[in-house]
Amino acid sequence: MRKIIHVDMDAFYASVEQRDDPSLRGRPVVVAWRGQRSVVCAASYEARRYGVRSAMPAMRAERLCPDAVFVAPDFTRYRAVSRQVREILLRHTDLVEPLSLDEAYLDVTEPKTDLPSATAIARRVREQIREETQLTASAGVAPSKFLAKIASDWRKPDGLFVIRPHEVEAFLEPLPVSRIHGVGKVMDARLAALGLRTVGELRRCDVGELEARFGRYGRRLSELAHGIDRGEVRPDRPTQSISAEDTFATDQPLSTTEPMIRELAAKVWAATRKTERIGRTVVLKLKTKEFRILTRSRTPPLPPRSAAELTDLALELRGHVDAPSSTLYRLVGVGLANFVGADDMPQSQLFGDIERDRT
């Protein structure tokens, strides 16, 4: 039986800004460059009360929260704090898998310290983060990565939640199926059409029927509904790709996919701001009505330096899809791949997005 902790910094970028500038404390802070082409990197909890969220267009955030204080991102500073947090995590186990600058998994089945339990380790980690960084983190403790990640969100911000092995089925039973990783709005609606609204109802559904309807993901759904997640904590796994995809409610021609591509590109760009690596290759994925998968990719001389540039490249790739115009598509995805370390990129390529996104 494994003991997994998921540690998630609370509103990380915005909290760093509020820590370093006392005048921002208690105020709605949006970390983003202002302008039509910018997206939100992070929002303080004060801003989230107005509906502001990461990956949202900055212009929309400004409309939702006119009193918000916009702060330009400082990723050099955020990476420095992230390294400080990483050092704290590594005191307790060598099995630390960073997911981004602000969250990580720890496998403490065999810890480096003599603390008596995974819960005690999670409590100590949070104390050390608070004392040494003046920031707060939430943590979830569970027998698997899937459950630990749900648990860390249970008492945010600045909370700790534990799911013990004998509590797994009772904990999952009433949860909406949307809490399962990979269940977005479209999949949620498809499960609702089958009368499956809770994880407990999904658990009682025949796995063969789920596979017949959803392929391999149907079996994965059944396993997660039973609390089964065999994923291991893999330390120092570098980012290879970041992507986002969604299924249309009804099959669409290529000409109407632009709004979805723009939305997905914004999500991907926001996700890349949480990693220290740089994606060089833009990927567009399409799945036809007949489930045929088409991909187009391009590695430009310079990597995308803004959400708008990523969007433009993804839309350009759409123009290279040579399927008949009558083809209908059920899914579209946007991704960045071919990641390299920031240290391998010239400074002009790393920071060329600042002035672009400020306009």
UniProtKB/TrEMBL annotation:
Its EC number is 2.7.7.7. Signal peptide: none annotated. Mg(2+) binds at residues 8, 102. GO terms for molecular function: DNA-directed DNA polymerase activity. The active site is at residue 103. It is found in: Cytoplasm. Residues 4-184 form the UmuC domain. The record marks 13 as: Substrate discrimination. Keywords: Cytoplasm, DNA damage, DNA repair, DNA replication, DNA-binding, DNA-directed DNA polymerase, Magnesium, Metal-binding, Mutator protein, Nucleotidyltransferase, Transferase. Poorly processive, error-prone DNA polymerase involved in untargeted mutagenesis. Copies undamaged DNA at stalled replication forks, which arise in vivo from mismatched or misaligned primer ends. These misaligned primers can be extended by PolIV. Exhibits no 3'-5' exonuclease (proofreading) activity. May be involved in translesional synthesis, in conjunction with the beta clamp from PolIII. Its cofactor is Mg(2+). Monomer. It catalyses: DNA(n) + a 2'-deoxyribonucleoside 5'-triphosphate = DNA(n+1) + diphosphate. This is DNA polymerase IV. Binds 2 magnesium ions per subunit. Belongs to the DNA polymerase type-Y family. The lineage of its organism: Bacteria, Pseudomonadati, Pseudomonadota, Gammaproteobacteria, Lysobacterales. Coiled coil: none annotated. CDD domains: PolY_Pol_IV_kappa.
